[in-house]
Design a protein that fits this description.
Length: 105
């Protein structure tokens, strides 16, 4: 998508006014603190990739679900509920992305 910036103006994309950039728009990594350590990671990743084909999920040694995705917090909550692992919004933690941009991200 082509984005044109003019000094002192809101970016315009293809003739439409875009909303100003917000830091939460670029969040790509999340830690999800699970209530129970067992999780069907394959089901979670399959549902995640239906929404974001480049999305990845794994569980670290402490039992925290780590997700790299362009999906939103609400999307992740819905995905986990659909996979049989309902969570509360307070369990979702945004973390600073370490994306290098190498995959066009």
């Amino acid at each position: 998508m082509i984005q044109i910036r003019a000094p002192g103006r809101v970016p315009v994309q293809h003739g439409r006014t875009a909303r100003p950039h917000r830091p939460e728009d670029t969040a790509m990594q999340f830690n999800i603190h699970l209530d129970r350590p067992q999780i069907d990671i394959d089901a979670v990743e399959r549902l995640l990739q239906n929404l974001d084909p480049a999305g990845l999920a794994d569980v670290d040694i402490t039992g925290v679900l780590r997700v790299s995705t362009t999906a939103s917090d609400d999307d992740l909550i819905a995905i986990l509920a659909k996979a049989g692992h309902p969570i509360r919004p307070s369990q979702v933690e945004r973390v600073a992305s370490v994306c290098c941009g190498g995959c066009s991200g």
